[in-house]
Amino acid sequence: MHLPKKDIAATGLVAAGGVIYLLKVTDVVLPGTGGTRAAAAIILAVGFAASAMAVVPGFEDLMHGSKLYLAVASLLGVVALVSGVIAIVTGSSTALAALMAATVVMWLMATIRHAAAAPARWKPRHAR
User: What residues form the membrane-spanning segments (predicted)?
Assistant: First the structure.
């Protein structure tokens, strides 16, 4: 399986968000990550960065691809954004969990989609 570099970088960002989430739910406090609000802000930021890195460069393909995939990914993006804002404003642990879950599902969907498309799209020039 060959993943584009953008997906590898996005994986690192989502993993960093996952670490922040795990630190929060296990009550391990690092400077700047101790509260639900701070964790939500960090997870929302890394999720946004991962999405921008892995999705925006291929946005044209996304718009002309599967409408179901686009609808599900868009819905998950809205869930992540709304959950993140709620977690930041209210400090809700439930909203934080929804943010993390939506972020992971979006990452997983995009990574699988890109991995499946990689052989056709990422062949060396001499192999085309």
Answer: 7-26, 38-56, 68-89, 95-116
